[in-house]
Amino acid sequence: MSKSFTTITHDVSQALGSLRHDIPETMQGFNAMAKAALAPGVLSVLDKELIALAIGIASRCDACVGFHVKALIRLGVSRAQLMETLAVCTYMGGGPSLMYAAEAVRAYEEFSAARPAKPAA
Description:
This protein is mostly helical. It has a single domain (about 5-115), classed as AhpD-like. Helices cover about 80% and strands about 0% of the residues. It has helices spanning about 5-20, 25-40, 45-60, 60-75, 80-115. The radius of gyration is 15 Å and the shape is globular. The termini are far apart. It comes from Candidatus Accumulibacter aalborgensis.
């Protein structure tokens, strides 16, 4: 059975809720670090999310792939931007990264299909 990135991100979000309750200081620190790291600067937020996705792929983290692809779609990533990032991931990580690049494509297609279409201008 194929994994569902919608299910993965939902399930991990619920578990993160437990962590926020049980170790609030740690989670507040992590969230502050994420907010600071992803703030726009010399690199755009989209560029930073592409980097985060690449690290998730290199780390073989399903939840990371799901959360960062979901964020990239929200930010308006193009398929071409995603594919170039996945090409670099494959170059740097070889076969295992290629397998997770394919998973990122699946996540992109899953989350894109679930996103409401923009009204025509």
